Amino acid sequence: MNNHHKKFTRRDSLQAGLLGLTGLTLAQSLQAAATSDSTATADSVLFVNLAGGPAHLDTLDMKPDGPSDNKGEFQPIQTVIPGLIACEYMPKFAKVADQFTLLRGISHTVGDHPQGQAYISTGNRPTPALQYPSLGSVVAKEQPGDPDLPSYMAIPDTEWTAGYMGDGYAPFKTKAVPKPGQPFAVRGITLPEGLTVGKVARREQLLKNLNSTFRQADTNSQLLESLDKFGQQAYSMITSKRTNEAFDVSREPESIRNLFDADDFGQSMLLAVRLIESGVKFITITNAGWDTHTDNFVGHKRLIPALDSAITAGLAALQTKGLLKRTLVVIMGEFGRTPKINQNVGRDHYPRANWSLMAGGGVRPGQLIGATDAGGESPTEDTDIHPDDIATSILHALGIDHHTEYFTKTNRPVSLVANGRVISELFG
Question: Is residue 140 predicted with pLDDT exceeding 70?
Fold first, then answer.
């Protein structure tokens, strides 16, 4: 039966009513029925967050013929994509650029870090009236994975939140990254010395008893629901051999481990690839330090080679494992940096121009989508890309309708991403 003409029965209505009591609207239940044969192109997302905002003119949107005040110290090199030049410190990317698609001229008007991060993490322009859930929280709610592993993980940390969905859908943070040649222990998963699985089981039963008592006092507490969810998940994770093995990057074949540099960025990417293979649905890697108001070129000369190595190694590992086809890789920061170099040889916040790299998960590789003008100051007239559109396209790849509505705690119906559009050129 064509899903667009599927009859909505009385039984469906009753089911929708029950769903509404748990936070789903009628629109969401209808969407669930309409997408039962979802054409999702991705099962998981790896979002590399370049926190602080890399300078677009010094990385993947260089303007060697642009105004002299905008030019930096770095030289351009030709990539395998005709018409695309990259920074001289990205030679590995230059050789495999045709395995990615580059979006340029991403634009918005949010010029501070927390708000910019909130925008790219949710696809909704920040407002003090409502805290939106980050995309990983949406995925954890819409497409929960194996209980032995969190659906949403952050390596090593993140400022992204679950917003109105509640802390039960917040990211699990590793708080550390692996070190080559050393066992990797994630606090809260690896059992401390002297703590046995039996002791954990007894504590879990005590927690259940306490939760039952408190729930009688406040049956509507979102906090208690979150604590209960985390408690159950913590118990499953601590007692699961599969979970501990998922974090053990030393189990990776030497041929995979040797792809990655020994720095934090490289090892974070190695861990992310392993966790995706284990079934984690959404992973963020936070690579900070791009906020180069002073000594922009000193900072970027240190940061860009690590970026070049980590993203190409991650792509190669996902390909080798047969995971890239169903894993959407997204690489971006919250904004670009000013074309004009300031008096401190730095570049300041610049939300009017940004870029994003995407690969895998149904993305058609080798494309250049969008552009900026000759000085890298504004998107071209035919470029209209915003963070809302990036988020909508990510959800689309996962088979999640961005118009899906949830009720907030004040019973306000809110769409996941109200103003986004699917960037159709990405897929196909």
Answer: yes
